[in-house]
Amino acid sequence: MGCTEIVRIVESCLKENPCEIDVRYNEPMANHSTFRAGGPADCWLRPSGDGFPMFAASLLQSAGDADIPVFILGAGANILAADAGIRGIVLDTGGWRGETEQQQKDVLEFRAGTSIDMAGEIAASRGFSGLEFLAGMPGSVGGAVWMNARCYGNDIAGVLHGVKIIDYSINPPEQSVYLPDKADFGYKHSPFQGKKNLILSASFCLQHGDVKKIRAEMDANRQDREDKGHYRYPSAGSVFKNNSAFGRPTGKIIDELGLRAMQTGGAQVAPWHGNLIINHGGATSADIRSLVDKVAAQVKIGTGLSLEPEILFIGEW
After folding, report:
1. Rounded to whole angstroms, how far apart are CA atoms 106 and 161?
2. Which of left, alpha, beta for 229 (phi over 0: left; psi -120 to 50: alpha)?
3. Of 91, 115, 204, 287, whose CA is between 20 and 30 Å from 146?
4. pLDDT in tens, 178-211
5. Average pLDDT over residues 249-269
6. From CA 112, how far away is CA 89, in angstroms rounded?
7. Which residues are marked as active site?
8. Which CATH number does the domain housing residue 26 bear?
């Protein structure tokens, strides 16, 4: 895949749809992943400003016409990029952030690149309750919607009001609004997975509440994440999905098999939590994936259970 063609496409799209942009070629994905691991993307770019939607639509169309893959990146909190990197373009949505003007009562809308923690902060400042369960989560609004992020017994689908998307499975790409149907969502599943959809923004239907109680719950959730060691070392949070059919959390299953502190290269199962793999220092993506596979294999041998990773393995493996 020629980098020259990617450069041409990016420059052409910028000329037709000007916007503020940060463009880097052969950019290490370790700079854009909470694991702090991963090789170079042929092209990483982060558009921002009001021109984002038009530029993104043009880029997705032009790249598709040239058979150049585009990976849409949120906050990099649930991915592991291969050491060999990612071919094509990484479209980073982190520059497309902030609250939009929303006329509907009890509804707040945020651009996809907004930190999900910041969205909760903005909601709390307005006296809105409903996003407390996301406090401290290191993801973006778009990523949380795509994954149907879940924690503390709540998920995104439970508060989702609408999602603005660009559908780039058609030519030219079209903007539309998706109105949620609960049947489309499941545990860590949304209707956007497996589809050529760029999430532009998401709106949430919230309730007025007591600001002190809202902030107390958010502080408690952040403290719980800190107590579980989510911030001590680079990681992607929970490595494997929980499965209610297993009868107990995945972390407990891993703990019972004595796999805490198991290590491959610079990657280690956290000594304090079985369902957390950390970059203990200088871990390659190969180290991390190898450890993920080893833990899954040991659980299969020890219990007969098949663990499913939450992490998305992207790039040239």
Report:
1. 10
2. left
3. 287
4. 999 999 999 999 999 999 999 999 999 999 999 9
5. 97
6. 18
7. 238, 310
8. 3.30.43.10
Q: Is the pTM of this model over 0.70?
A: yes
Q: Are residues 271 and 297 in the same domain?
A: yes
Q: Are strands 79-81 and 267-269 parallel, antiparallel or unpaired?
A: unpaired
Tens digit of each residue's pLDDT (9 = 90 or more) over 8-48: 999 999 999 999 999 999 999 999 999 999 999 999 999 99
Per-residue pLDDT, 2? 61
Place of tokens 């707040």: 108
Q: Look up the CATH number of the domain holding residue 249.
A: 3.90.78.10
For residue 251, is pLDDT > 70?
A: yes
Sequence-distant (≥ 6) Cβ neighbours of residue 206 within 8 angstroms: 106, 107, 108, 123, 128, 129, 130, 131, 159
Question: Residue 112: inside a domain, yes or no?
Answer: yes
Q: Can you tell me the distance from the alpha carbon of 204 to that of 158, in angstroms, rounded to the nearest whole number?
A: 9
Provide the residue type at 202 as one letter. A
**Do 148 and 186 touch, CB atoms closer than 8 A?**
yes
Task: Check whether residue 252 and residue 306 sit in a common domain.
Answer: yes
Q: Are strands 40-48 and 86-92 parallel, antiparallel or unpaired?
A: parallel
